[in-house]
Design goal:
The complex is a heterodimer of chains A (about 350) and B (about 260). Chain A has about 350 residues and is an alpha/beta fold. Chain A has 9 helices and 17 strands. The longest helix of chain A has 19 residues, at about 320-340. Chain B is globular and about 70 Å long. Classes of the chains: A alpha/beta (about 350), B alpha/beta (about 260). Bound molecules: flavin-adenine dinucleotide and adenosine monophosphate (AMP).
Chain lengths: ~350, ~260
């Protein structure tokens, strides 16, 4: 139990405010995780959990907010907020923070969440702690938190000292969990007071998703690194990925050599993947690469070196030359498929 | 066109990070140093813009004496002005870093005019705070776009693209502006031999930044518990293929 006793004024309960991002009306996974994190922080400080969404809140969204224990949700609307304008979003959140008397503001550690929260930090001159996965309130001005450093390879424990705690939530560090008891979320409208300059920087045009299996969403990723040996060597990996209905992912060594485009790079400065299977070959397992596959359910490594760091981070391994093993595996799968079809 | 790029010296960690016994720092005794790939790309982008439109590429770092190495690396691929905000090794948090950078930008701009573009990495590899560029932009009252993967710059405006949920977002900005870039915007060149020679002799302008205590008070660093200790070895070479196939079947990734 927390020993924290919130100081209550007459009209407002302490509350935790969380920015929730949606995609076609569905709350994105990163925001569900942020909400789970926010709920446990709210519970530890006997605070209400409030969500902020930009735009209207349809019934279906409201019910998923309820299942995550959200007490109240604000539909934040203004012509300056859409298309997406980071400063306008930050201004709106800052105003909502005051309106609902929240002492904590959270968002997912997504590109957008980190961006908006950094703007809130800049507008308020308050610190903003990115990629947190643990937090408890100590008193009105202090939150003890744990956050990811070095893209998750290291953890920092620290005290955030501010009357308004600004944090984003690490995707890999938190799971999404429904509340034990669903709540009925009270929906309110909030119209922030924004002027044109807040919307000065905005998305001028959005081009939709490209076709094909994206690396970030692929169920199977076939990984190749410097050990593949050449750009041509990737033909066998392409073929295997196709047989498995997956995508090819590569290390930075490969993109730096120009063997493959950067949009196939997995890691800290590339794409974060979360497949059921990451079949990784010819990659040594540098922390910066591993940072991109922490959410992979199973890692199977192929490497000539039994002492490569990837071997101690994989679930299964085959020791040997990928340029022999990958084509042989592809052949075996093709044979199996011809028998079963 | 005058472009300023901000880069940060960081340790090049390998397969494992070791924390010092007092739990406050990472042990860098065995390590080399570098800058983020995002920042390498930012320097490359600045050099390309100036090769096309003319002007200067200034590169700035806030860090210990040794951070001059990273400035010289940038000079080797074409940076024309080097700026070092020299610290005594103490950590500057994002607020202190942004304030120190803004202070020096004011001083430099008073002498040689406004930077049309100030480029940052999207996030630093060590702290990953995602905010120094944004804080600088607010202090200078300039527009800011983060995570830029494609950039077209004209005399007075810029078009910046970035990825968003598998699609592509376009921003149109007036100069001067602040952009944070991601690796993949370009493929940085290797330094040439003459470039390296020039870099050795390049002049570095030095400043003394003012440190301030962070409101995020570090209690300690620790390495996360790894759930896996060692993989189960399925076999060696092509002999392991049947076991591998059986495993894929069991996982349920074969149709
Ligand atoms: C700030 C920063 C960010 C970075 N971001 C990323 C990132 O996002 N993604 C990333 O990947 N890296 C990143 N890196 C680079 C990273 O540190 C490593 O340099 C890189 O991941 C190494 O790539 P690799 O494993 O392919 O090459 P190597 O480390 O050279 O490993 C090659 C491996 O292949 C094996 N091998 C060789 N031949 C064969 C064969 N025939 N069959 C099977 N195995 C074979 C070898 O035993 C070895 O283990 C970053 C670095 C920094 C400093
Ligand atoms: N000490 C520093 N010196 C120069 N630039 C820095 C420094 N720290 C951060 N930056 C810049 O700000 C970006 C974002 O850093 P951060 O907000 O700490 O994740 C980095 O990629 C750098 O471009």
């Amino acid at each position: 139990m927390s020993s924290y006793e919130p100081s209550r004024n007459e009209t407002q309960h302490p509350s935790v405010l969380c920015l929730v991002e949606t995609d076609d009306g569905t709350v994105i996974e990163a925001s569900l995780r942020a909400l789970s994190f926010a709920r446990s922080l709210a519970q530890s400080s006997q605070a209400r959990l409030i969500a902020a969404l930009v735009g209207e809140i349809p019934e279906i969204t409201a019910s998923s907010l309820g299942s995550f224990g959200v007490d109240e949700a604000y539909a934040v609307t203004s012509t300056q907020l859409s298309p997406y304008a980071p400063v306008a979003w930050a201004q709106a959140l800052r105003q909502l923070l005051v309106t609902c008397g929240a002492t904590t503001l959270l968002a997912a550690g997504s590109d957008r969440g980190n961006e908006v929260m950094a703007h809130v930090g800049a507008l308020t001159s308050e610190p903003m702690a990115a990629n947190c996965f643990g937090a408890t309130r100590i008193d009105d001005e202090t939150v003890r938190l744990s956050r990811q450093r070095w893209a998750g390879s290291l953890i920092e424990d620290s005290l955030l000292r501010s009357t308004t705690a600004l944090m984003t939530v690490a995707f890999d560090g938190v799971s999404s969990q429904r509340a034990e008891h669903a709540t009925t979320t009270k929906i309110s409208a909030f119209a922030p007071n924004l002027d044109e300059s807040d919307g000065r920087t905005h998305v001028a045009r959005w081009t939709g998703r490209s076709a094909g299996i994206s690396l970030a969403d692929a169920r199977v990723v076939v990984g190749g690194g410097r050990g593949v040996g050449s750009a041509d060597g990737f033909a066998a990996l392409d073929e295997l990925a196709e047989l498995l209905g997956g995508a090819v992912g590569v290390s930075r060594a490969v993109t730096s050599l120009g063997w493959r485009p950067h949009n196939q790079q997995v890691g800290q400065t590339g794409t974060r993947i979360a497949p059921d299977l990451y079949l990784v070959s010819g990659i040594s397992g540098a922390t910066q690469h591993l940072a991109g596959c922490q959410s992979a359910k199973r890692v199977v490594a192929i490497n000539t070196d039994p002492d490569a760091p990837i071997i101690s981070r994989a679930d299964y391994a085959v020791i040997g030359d990928l340029n022999q093993i990958i084509p042989a595996l592809a052949a075996a799968i093709r044979e199996r498929n011809s028998l079963t079809s | 066109m005058n472009v300023l790029v901000c880069i940060k010296r960081v340790a090049m960690v390998g397969a494992r990070i070791v924390v010092t016994p007092d739990g406050q720092e990472i042990d860098t005794k065995q390590l080399g140093f570098t800058v983020s790939p995002h920042e390498e790309c930012a320097v490359e982008e600045a050099v390309r813009i100036v090769e096309r439109l003319g002007g200067t590429v200034s590169v700035l770092t806030l860090g210990p004496s040794e951070a001059s190495e990273q400035l010289r690396d940038a000079a080797a691929i074409g940076a024309t002005h080097l700026v070092h905000l020299k610290t005594d090794g103490r950590e500057f948090d994002p607020i202190a870093t942004a304030q120190a950078i803004v202070e020096v930008v004011h001083q430099l701009e008073a002498v040689s005019g406004t930077y049309d573009l100030i480029l940052f990495g999207n996030e630093a590899p060590d702290t990953g705070d995602y905010q120094v560029g944004i804080r600088v932009a607010h202090s200078l009252d300039r527009p800011c776009v983060t995570g830029v993967k494609n950039l077209e710059v004209a005399e007075t405006s810029a078009r910046a693209r970035r990825e968003f949920r598998g699609g592509d977002e376009l921003f149109e900005l007036d100069l001067p502006c602040v952009l944070t870039v991601k690796e993949g915007i370009n493929l940085p060149r290797y330094p040439s031999l003459p470039g390296r020679m020039r870099a050795k002799k390049a002049v570095i302008e030095e400043f003394e930044p003012v440190w301030q205590a962070s409101l995020v008070v570090k209690e300690g660093l620790r390495v996360p518990n790894v759930t896996r200790e060692r993989a189960e070895i399925l076999g060696t070479g092509v002999d392991a293929v049947p076991a591998l196939l059986a495993l894929l079947e069991q996982i349920g990734v074969l149709s």
